[in-house]
């Protein structure tokens, strides 16, 4: 197992390298720069700035410098937020994004599996139809429609929760609900399908034949098998949570890294954008690894060696 | 007579025993799926609305009515009755003349005006400038045009009746016209981007699958690496850094959505290339390009069609997401995502600005998804 993890981590290095390279050259080849202001800067100041940030060197040289710094964990200074390095910004923003993301994921898994299993156990009853119908809604309606409507309903009209901002637990409710709703829908759908299949499978029939109580048959034997597609969905789920967090953080005004990314891209903040790309790619890679390990643990037929 | 009988005899077994083609079969199954048929109708209506609707509504999507900013949706025509007299008065006050009582009869407002000096006929412009009034003119007491040099008379103007069925936005533009344009843009980008992904993915997947071996290995490795990239972020980068034109948006979206297509087509191609008719074509010396074009690609179409119908809502979603973040189409042009974003920032006190575009987008997405599901059931019944 340790060898497998190590090999996977080593395999991630070329992927990261490709990502960093594409992102770096894409940003640099684009017109405009971080020092383009409404009024052009004095040429001398511009020259100094360019020298300070190594912009006067050829592009390949800058790329090597960036790679060297990256290898040491230095993501460089931010251009739009003076006096902050990108690492500083992430130290503030990353915990916020991770809090929202992991809470949403947790809720999606809990609520989704419970709903899905309920629907499967009561197949073709009103519970089933309700869950399936709601799931269809949840999958189809995009985050950026749900978010403002929730904010309008609970924040503006009823005034129960703050419509935006960050600070107390109350600020977290709407973003987390928004992010988790589509995930709940997908997880519920997957669990329902897998549970229905698992209930018909041989090992569950055997467990029943042994006279095990339904609680154990469903809770241990059927659900464990039903968890497999859900676990393999976790990778894509993490990716869509990341996308969703860009929207949710923008709408609710949450100081996370998704918002940094949009602002950074608009302000030609090279280092901030690069940093976000690196962090997010790293996150996706690690998450996919965790999913694969979980998969092997849940399904002994899967072996990695 | 004999001829007739003969021809009937020939025809009958043909019509009884003729096998239905895959597409006829699929068509029949699709037609019996009520959700899919209803969705197709809804989509057709929406597409028509987006295509010809903007010419039918009386307002242009970029015309600004400064006096009708954020008016609520209403079936009644604007201006509301109680606004006419005060607005007429305030328009006249700008002309710095003495104004008597304003009277309103039907759709004509009339007010006695007088001044120390002769009335300048150009003061009608103060009234015409308002969105509420039209055809302002100076008259004497009998309704004839005012004689030149007179220092008192009547200012008469027609009330301009405007309908804003969906209300107006924060800049005073008709929301209905904007939603129609938004539908047009969103559908167009969705279709074009899907077409782009289709062309790229089918070509790539078919080549990789057909040639196999090392070429396949390398090509699919590339897809795997691209797969692990956080693609939405690359779309955002592309759009931000290379401008925000309509063309670039659908190219960017097309570029991100072709990977699944390439995988599906490759898998299909691997099966198809072992079929006898492909071997026959090879034996006859048909070129690889010819076999790909004539045999491989047409036979992958079933799953591809299904995938494309599910791709269109994805592309629309991505476009709306970009527009929502302010990275999509630019003002005054608009798309549903942009309208939702504007609605979200104006939702306090003007909820309709958020709700109408949101509902429109949701309906489109639902219809496309149901139609896609229906097509999948129709074309691929074993996957039900």
From TrEMBL, chain A:
Span of domain ABC transmembrane type-1: 94-295
Membrane topology: Multi-pass membrane protein
Keyword Ribosomal protein on entry: no
Record's keyword terms, sorted: Cell membrane, Membrane, Transmembrane, Transmembrane helix, Transport
Transmembrane parts of this sequence: 9-30, 92-118, 130-160, 172-191, 237-258, 270-298
Record GO biological process: transmembrane transport
InterPro entries in the record: BPD_transp_1_N, MetI-like, MetI-like_sf
Location within or outside the cell: Cell membrane
Pfam families cross-referenced by the UniProt entry: BPD_transp_1, BPD_transp_1_N
CDD domains: TM_PBP2
Gene Ontology cellular-component terms listed: plasma membrane
PANTHER family: DIPEPTIDE TRANSPORT SYSTEM PERMEASE PROTEIN DPPB-RELATED
Similarity annotation: Belongs to the binding-protein-dependent transport system permease family.
Protein name: ABC transporter permease subunit
Species of the source: Tianweitania sediminis
From TrEMBL, chain B:
Protein location: Cell inner membrane; Cell membrane
Assigned GO CC terms: plasma membrane
Keywords: Cell inner membrane, Cell membrane, Membrane, Peptide transport, Protein transport, Transmembrane, Transmembrane helix, Transport
Gene3D superfamilies attached to this UniProt entry: MetI-like
PROSITE patterns listed in its UniProt record: ABC_TM1 (PS50928)
Spans traversing the lipid bilayer: 35-57, 185-211, 231-256, 304-329, 349-372
PANTHER family the record matches: OLIGOPEPTIDE TRANSPORT SYSTEM PERMEASE PROTEIN APPC (PTHR43386), OLIGOPEPTIDE TRANSPORT SYSTEM PERMEASE PROTEIN OPPC (PTHR43386:SF2)
Family: Belongs to the binding-protein-dependent transport system permease family. OppBC subfamily.
Protein name in the entry: Oligopeptide transport system permease protein OppC
């Amino acid at each position: 197992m340790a060898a497998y993890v190590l090999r996977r981590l080593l395999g991630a290095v070329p992927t990261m390298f490709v990502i960093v390279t594409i992102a770096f050259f894409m940003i640099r080849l684009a017109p405009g720069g971080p020092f383009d202001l409404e009024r052009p800067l004095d040429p001398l100041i511009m020259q100094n700035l360019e020298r300070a940030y190594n912009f006067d060197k050829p592009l390949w040289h800058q790329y090597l410098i960036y790679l060297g710094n990256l290898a040491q964990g230095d993501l460089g200074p931010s251009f739009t937020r003076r006096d902050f390095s990108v690492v500083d910004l992430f130290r503030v923003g990353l915990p916020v994004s991770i809090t929202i993301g992991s809470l949403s994921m947790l809720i999606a898994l809990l609520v989704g599996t419970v709903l899905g299993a309920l629907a499967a156990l009561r197949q073709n009853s009103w519970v089933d139809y309700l869950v399936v119908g709601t799931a269809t809604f949840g999958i189809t309606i995009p985050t950026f429609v749900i978010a403002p409507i929730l904010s309008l309903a609970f924040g503006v009209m009823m005034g129960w929760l703050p419509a935006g901002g960050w600070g107390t637990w109350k600020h977290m409710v709407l973003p987390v609900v928004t992010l988790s709703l589509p995930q709940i829908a997908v997880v519920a759908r997957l669990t329902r399908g897998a549970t229905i299949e698992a209930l018909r499978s041989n090992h569950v029939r055997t467990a029943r034949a042994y006279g095990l109580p339904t609680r154990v048959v469903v809770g241990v034997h059927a659900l464990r098998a039903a968890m497999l597609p859900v676990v393999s969905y976790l990778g894509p789920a993490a990716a869509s949570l990341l996308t969703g967090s860009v929207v949710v953080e923008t709408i609710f005004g949450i100081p996370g890294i998704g918002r940094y990314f949009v602002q950074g891209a608009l302000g030609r903040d090279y280092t901030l954008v690069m940093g976000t790309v690196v962090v997010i790619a790293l996150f996706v890679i690690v998450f996919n690894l965790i999913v694969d390990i979980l998969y092997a643990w849940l399904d002994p037929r899967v072996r990695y060696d | 007579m004999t001829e007739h009988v003969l021809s009937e005899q020939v025809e009958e077994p043909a019509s009884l025993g003729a096998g239905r083609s895959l597409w006829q079969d699929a068509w029949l199954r699709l037609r019996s799926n009520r959700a899919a048929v209803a969705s197709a109708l809804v989509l057709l209506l929406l597409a028509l609305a987006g295509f010809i609707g903007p010419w039918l509504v009386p307002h242009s999507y970029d015309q600004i009515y400064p006096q009708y900013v954020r008016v609520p949706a209403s079936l009644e025509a604007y201006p509301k009755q109680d606004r006419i007299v005060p607005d007429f008065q305030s328009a006249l006050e700008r002309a710095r003349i003495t104004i008597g009582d304003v009277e309103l009869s039907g759709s004509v407002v009339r007010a006695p005006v007088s001044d120390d000096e002769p009335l300048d006929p150009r003061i009608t412009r103060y009234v015409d400038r308002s969105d509420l009034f039209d055809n302002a003119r100076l008259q004497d007491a009998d309704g004839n045009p005012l004689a030149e040099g007179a220092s008192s008379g009547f200012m008469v103007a027609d009330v301009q009746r405007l309908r804003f069925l969906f209300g107006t936005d924060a800049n005073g533009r008709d929301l209905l016209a904007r939603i129609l344009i938004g539908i047009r843009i969103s559908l167009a980008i969705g279709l074009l981007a899907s077409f782009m992904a289709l062309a790229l993915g089918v070509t790539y997947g078919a080549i990789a699958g057909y040639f196999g071996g090392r070429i396949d290995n390398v090509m699919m490795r590339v897809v795997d690496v691209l797969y692990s990239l956080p693609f939405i972020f690359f779309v955002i980068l592309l759009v931000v850094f290379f401008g925000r034109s309509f063309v670039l948006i659908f190219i960017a979206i097309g570029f991100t959505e072709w990977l699944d297509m390439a995988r599906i087509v490759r898998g299909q191609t691997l099966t198809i290339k072992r079929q006898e008719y492909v071997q026959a074509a090879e034996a006859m010396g048909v070129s690889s390009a010819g076999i790909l074009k004539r045999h491989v690609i047409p036979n992958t179409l079933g799953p591809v069609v299904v995938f494309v119908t599910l791709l269109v809502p994805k592309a629309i979603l991505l476009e709306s997401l970009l527009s929502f973040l302010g990275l999509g189409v630019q003002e005054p042009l608009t798309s549903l995502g942009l309208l939702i974003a504007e609605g979200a920032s104006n939702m306090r006190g003007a909820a309709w600005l958020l709700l109408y575009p949101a509902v429109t987008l949701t309906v489109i997405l639902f219809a496309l998804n149901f139609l896609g599901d229906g097509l999948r059931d129709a074309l691929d019944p074993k996957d039900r």
